[in-house]
Amino acid sequence: MEGNQLFPVFIKLNELHTVVIGGGPVGLEKLTAILGNSTQAKVTVIAKEIIDELKEFTLAFPLVEIKQKSFEPHDLNGANIVVAATNDNVLNVEIREAAKLRGLLVNVADKPELCDFYLGSIVQKGDLKIAISTNGKSPTIAKRLKEVLNESIPEELDTTLQQMNSLRNSLQGDFSDKVKKLNEVTEILTRDLK
Ligand SMILES: C[C@@]1(CC(=O)O)C2=NC(=C\c3[nH]c(c(CCC(=O)O)c3CC(=O)O)Cc3[nH]c(c(CC(=O)O)c3CCC(=O)O)/C=C3\N/C(=C\2)[C@@H](CCC(=O)O)[C@]3(C)CC(=O)O)/[C@H]1CCC(=O)O
Ligand SMILES: NC(=O)c1ccc[n+]([C@@H]2O[C@H](COP(=O)([O-])OP(=O)(O)OC[C@H]3O[C@@H](n4cnc5c(N)ncnc54)[C@H](O)[C@@H]3O)[C@@H](O)[C@H]2O)c1
Prior knowledge:
This protein starts with 16 loop residues before the first strand and ends in an 8-residue tail after the last helix. Helices cover about 40% and strands about 20% of the residues. It has 3 domains: about 15-120, 3-Layer(aba) Sandwich (Rossmann fold); about 120-155; about 160-194, no CATH class. The protein is α/β, with parallel strands linked by helices. Strand 4, helix 3 (about 90-100) and strand 5 (about 105-110) form a beta-alpha-beta unit. Bound molecules: ligand PQ2 and nicotinamide-adenine-dinucleotide (NAD).
């Protein structure tokens, strides 16, 4: 496929049901990414064996349910999003097929060819989130870029966001008047670019 075909979106995992299959270090890594962004995410973890670190990590998240069992396709009934992180490549393909049969989007950790979507590297400053992808070319660069942006974006940007939200809610007039005002007061942010 020519070029980068990925379309970034921001998913309300707190309003959806995510099923994670696999309870090893990679399962824990993906679960950490999910809950690090969406502490209210409703997640079911399914795995034959689950490492202690994963069990301990999930203690802080009451909406996470752990089911220690072999994967069966009906485990995806009622799911909205599927993340597979097993050490069995045949099973990973079966999980993908079970997800497709149910019309679900699936991520198979570290297996780009089996993914409908990739996890991104995420910069977080309060309400601001920036998701980075390298089209699968180098997750390490995504992670490094996250570190650079985390350092260079000031913490105060979140204060600015909150103030802008108050202003946005208080503005009177028609839509184009409001847009004009919001653009005027933020013009300073791009002054150095001109
Ligand atoms: C961003 C991040 C999000 C997250 O996972 O939370 C993420 N990987 C992260 C880290 C990371 N992953 C790997 C390393 C080791 C170094 C290396 O191999 O490069 C490191 C670096 C480290 O850990 O330091 C191994 C690896 N990853 C993939 C493959 C397979 C392949 O490339 O073919 C292999 C080789 C496996 C093997 O050799 O067997 C594939 C994928 N990894 C993705 C996401 C998706 C593409 C994202 C994009 O478009 O850039 C994609 C396609 C699918 C997916 O898994 O969603 C997270 C950064 C978290 C942070 O911000 O700190
Ligand atoms: N650990 C790493 O740093 C790393 C890095 C790159 C790629 N990988 C690959 O990612 C995959 C997962 O890695 P890991 O270290 O988490 O592996 P792991 O072996 O520690 O964990 C695999 C998990 O899958 C579960 N599982 C296997 N078959 C199952 C079944 N039928 N039903 C339910 N659960 C089942 C296991 O119980 C276990 O919880 C592996 O393919 C590995 O090669 C791992």
